[in-house]
Amino acid sequence: MVLGGRLRRLREASGLSREQAGDHIRGSDSKISRLELGRTSIRERDLVDLLDLYGVTDTEELDAFQELARQANTSGWWHRDNDWLPKWFDMYLGLEQAAQVIRCYEPRAVPELLQTADYARALLTLAHPGEPEDAIERRVALRMRRQHILDRPHPPHLWLIVEEAALTRRIGGSRIWGAQIDRLLAAARQPHITVQILADHVGGPALADGAFTYLRFAEADLPDIVYLQQLTGALYLDKQADLDAYRAVANQLSVHAAPPEYTPGLLTALRRRQPRIMDQPARREQGGAGR
């Protein structure tokens, strides 16, 4: 996306249309559009030809474009899961790895970047009934690997707004749920992680139609992006009107949610007051009543 944005600005500064650029690399205007939007990789020959067309002759600038193209064409660590990973999610993983700020609103469950392996496994088992155990484990491993961005020397700032109802759903049973709340407690004390809890009576779902993630990047050539995951696909919004709307909703939610300094106390109280539940359904005695 960074490479595509820079190529688009060079083309526009040269006064050339996408059709003219496409003809120059023996392609179409739609190919140039995909390149400029970061939707496809670029061949070295096409890059050299486009830079020549746009009048780029400085050796250092040419080398910088070549290095950027090399990085853009390098597969991410998650590509080893391409045999099952949806294409629409592949793009999100790359954006998540590059983000400087990740703001999430989650009304249903603990956000994925702070889930424990057991909690994630319980959720994924519910979401993919009948899927083999090894396939579920691959999904869990991917989710855990994503969380490594929070342990980097310069991690992104993660800002989560979670519905109270999402935290009271004891996914996986009392033991797994309790360990998940402990994980949130530990995360909320880290300087680069902000966790806010939105009380049920505020009505978060009335303010936002559903979960969303707002991504901001250090690289000036990357616009902010709103990610909306659906059952069988995802939307990536980068138009200014959409960004303004979701940023306003995120700000409104953060105002209505409890301040982040209250989060440890709220989580501790939630953990203490919730009654234990059985991790497995009660079995019925043969010939007798259930207990």
Automatic annotation (TrEMBL):
InterPro entries: Cro/C1-type_HTH (IPR001387), DUF5753 (IPR043917), Lambda_DNA-bd_dom_sf (IPR010982). Residues 7-62 form the HTH cro/C1-type domain. It comes from the Bacteria. Gene3D superfamilies: lambda repressor-like DNA-binding domains. This is Helix-turn-helix transcriptional regulator. CDD domains: HTH_XRE. It comes from Nocardia fusca.
